[in-house]
Design a protein that fits this description.
By secondary structure, the chain is α+β, with helices and mostly antiparallel strands. It has 13 helices and 18 strands. Helix 5 packs across helix 6.
Length: about 375
């Protein structure tokens, strides 16, 4: 779950990280009032959950409250990478002397949080890693020790922070680590962490990505979710307790079990097909849940075949088959479907599906091959209709 810049910076401020005293505005009038309260030059920043705001014209400098109002009117409603700007952040302009990158990311390979710092702030850290990797310093943090002062100071020394700023940098680095630990983040970054005219450090931009699996521990953070920025299908899946991620392929996948779902997508790729989604319906296969999953899969106009891959362990295959048949009675299914059932009562389950005129398969390889063939046939039919 991504947080907006203003939400991230408010959390940073609560942990003692210096941030600008900006205000969020949902209208041009509110932007005028915020700029007037700040006094002086202000920066109007589009609040959308994507990068590239500046290049898209979503970040502007206003010298007066009237100019802030006019610029906010231009930015509000703007479309940036498919997202509509509904709010702007009005921050006081900063006298930037140098920009630094500072972030904490969950590294699954080391099973640790890693703190990353670079003297090349203000640009994507991925680009810095590609073009100038020597400018990046990393520290793998031992969760039993946390981030000791000496490690934070070593990070400051590694990116060339002046001696007079190292204590302040250490404080900010430790506070950022505390943000990451207490909020269960997968990413918390300050870009840029600027050295400003008075010789101090200021977090001018911020980003926090929360671990969805830990949101049950943070209801106050879950309430900050901006659903307008999320895929509608993924929102619908969440309502029904389904794990769903939309992909760009043509074969819809409905599987019970995350590992089995990943294996299913791999086998589809192996036979030359392309999965349209990751979808794990979990244990059991109640008709209402299967129906919801089917609706979500078929809402993707690119889907021209659907593959069910169900392992009947705790749930019997015949019960799964009954759930699928019942779901098909609730949902219009204009594309061909292949079902592979294995486990308890699999023969009975396949008989139920055969009576329902559904294509069945005994193995995952067979099911994937059939799905790929049906998908290619569907693509060919679409091309012929267009011609």
């Amino acid at each position: 779950m991504n947080l907006h810049e203003y939400q991230s910076k408010r959390i940073f401020g609560q942990h003692g990280i210096p941030v600008p005293s900006g205000e969020v505005a949902g209208s041009a009038e509110e932007a005028y009032q915020a700029a007037r309260a700040l006094g002086g030059t202000s920066v109007i920043k589009a609040q959308v959950l994507t990068g590239g705001r500046g290049k898209a014209g979503g970040v502007k400098v206003a010298k007066t409250p009237g100019e802030a109002e006019a610029l906010a009117a231009q930015i509000l409603g703007m479309n940036i990478r498919g997202l509509t700007v509904k709010q702007v952040l009005v921050d006081p302009a900063a006298d930037i002397r140098h920009e630094i990158y500072l972030g904490v990311v969950l590294d699954r390979a080391s099973e640790r949080l890693v703190m990353i710092a670079s003297a090349a702030g203000g640009m994507d850290i991925e680009e810095v890693a590609r073009t100038a990797p020597e400018k990046i310093q990393r520290i793998v943090i031992d969760p039993a020790l946390g981030l000791p002062d000496f490690q934070a100071r070593a990070l400051a020394f590694g990116i060339g922070i002046d001696r007079g700023l190292r204590r302040e940098f250490t404080h900010i680095a430790r506070a950022l680590y505390h943000v990451a630990m207490t909020h269960d983040v997968t990413l918390a970054e300050i870009n840029p962490l600027a050295i400003v005219g008075d010789g101090k450090l200021l977090a001018l931009d911020g980003k926090i990505v929360l671990d969805d699996n830990a949101l049950f521990r943070h209801p106050e953070l879950a309430a900050l979710r901006d659903q307008s920025a999320e895929d509608k299908s993924e929102l619908e899946a969440r309502k029904h307790g389904l794990s769903y991620v939309k992909l760009d392929g043509k074969i819809g996948c409905m599987v019970n079990g995350a590992g089995l779902a990943m294996a299913t997508m791999d086998v589809i790729h192996y036979f030359g097909g392309s999965p349209a989604n990751f979808l794990d319906i979990g244990g059991g296969a109640q008709a209402d849940k299967v129906a919801a999953a089917l609706r979500i899969i078929l809402s993707d106009a690119n889907v021209n075949a659907v593959l069910f891959n169900i392992f009947g362990g705790i749930t019997r295959c015949d019960e799964v088959a009954k759930g699928i048949v019942a779901a098909l009675g609730q949902v219009n299914t204009p594309v061909p479907m292949v079902v592979r059932l294995v486990g308890t009562n699999e023969a009975e389950g396949r008989a139920i599906l055969a009576n329902a005129q559904m294509e069945t398969a005994k193995t995952l390889s067979e099911a994937a091959q059939k799905a790929v063939e049906l998908s290619e046939r569907g693509s060919q039919n679409r091309r012929e209709k267009r011609n």
